[in-house]
Amino acid sequence: xxxxxxxxxxxxxxxxxxxxxxxxxxxxxxxxxxxxxxxxxxxxxxxxxxxxxxxxxxxxxxxxxxxxxxxxxxxxxxxxxxxxxxxxxxxxxxxxxxxxxxxxxxxxxxxxxxxxxxxxxxxxxxxxxxxxxxxxxxxxxxxxxxxxxxxxxxxxxxxxxxxxxxxxxxxxxxxxxxxxxxxxxxxxxxxxxxxxxxxxxxxxxxxxxxxxxxxxxxxxxxxxxxxxxxxxxxxxxxxxxxxxxxxxxxxxxxxxxxxxxxxxxxxxxxxxxxxxxxxxxxxxxxxxxxxxxxxxxxxxxxxxxxxxxxxxxxxxxxxxxxxxxxxxxxxxxxxxxxxxxxxxxxxxxxxxxxxxxxxxxxxxxxxxxxxxxxxxxxxxxxxxxxxxxxxxxxxxxxxxxxxxxxxxxxx
Length: 411
Hints:
The chain has 411 residues and is an alpha/beta fold. The chain has 3 domains: 3-169, MoaB/Mog-like domain (Molybdenum Cofactor Biosythetic Enzyme, Chain A, 3-Layer(aba) Sandwich); 175-251, Alpha-Beta Plaits; 256-408, Alpha-Beta Complex (Maf protein). It is 40% helix and 24% strand. It has helices at residues 10-13, 20-31, 46-57, 77-85, 93-106, 153-169, 188-194, 226-244, 256-267, 281-286, 305-312, 316-322, 327-341, 388-408; strands at residues 3-8, 39-42, 62-66, 89-91, 119-121, 125-127, 136-140, 145-149, 175-184, 205-211, 214-223, 248-251, 271-275, 296-301, 345-351, 366-373, 376-383. A 6-stranded mixed β-sheet has the order 2-1-3-8-7-6, sandwiched between helices. It has a 5-stranded mixed β-sheet with strand order 14-13-15-16-17, with helices on both faces. Strands 10-11-9-12 form a 4-stranded antiparallel β-sheet. Strand 13 (271-275), helix 10 (281-286) and strand 14 form a beta-alpha-beta unit. The mean pLDDT is 95. Belongs to the CinA family. InterPro entries: CinA (IPR050101), CinA-like_C (IPR036653), CinA_C (IPR008136), CinA_KH (IPR041424), Competence-induced_CinA (IPR008135), MoaB/Mog-like_dom_sf (IPR036425), MoaB/Mog_dom (IPR001453).
């Protein structure tokens, strides 16, 4: 079967937002073995949307749309679909109750315009949205199938995975099996170079996906039964693991902080964190791990020199001689937070997050990460390119990854 993607939204045509939805959906439908020859972006205009549907169905069996499901007058994807299929729009009480609940939870007054989000073409299967106020739907007739999804990726992706993917899989004669390996500490291009001979494979495929501070490698195989698909992945996974080594921190649906948290909990290693440039991001990530309260003792944001001296015992002379952004201060911060709390581990960050404050000797993006473990202190110097948000986020990820690497080789 042939699938075509139609993304609705004038903001896409104007370049106000990047169309990541098409990339995501294309990769998922390819996994299922569907052919796809065209993608369309169309603005918020009834006639042009219906014409896009007409053209798409002239060459495809299934059309997947994103966008145009909001409460405003120019959100007309469902209405255009209803006219195209010759169906009336009907009110769905369950959708309206869900929308009301979302507004009540957020403490926001609901408006009458939101009611339009609870109307759907007659006979469609409604796809209830757990992450927003715009449900989707599936419309079918004797020869055509349309999946209508919301535009924001944080809503579209979960809804696609929960509803659209299983629906599409019913039209595929292949079993798709995927395994994800999670990598941290090296960039996407470096990781891809290390396994470049595997990236050209057709079945299984190996695809890298860059995330904030990490890379995900998804190995996907297609076969006529599940066991064959799993067996096909195994030798490819072994080669990826051999090439990437300890850059791989986990697999499947996990996170760096969860993996590190598990090690700390399993070994009963107490940790405290002192942060300057990251402003609490390291602590915030670590406390995402369930059960971390058993070993996470304290997180301090010691942004000023005075706080570093008062709370961590950083020597005033060290600050005057080397400055707050220095190997020496990162070391004293890590040691100070650990000793203050009687912990096995102290983790610290200090750096220049920008956009101001950099010098030729200490440019924006310079960060020192200190790690105290049972009396020994190591400091890692890193340099990060990007804006303030990226520098802070990436520094937090690198700090946790540096801790991970020390822990896995720790006796």
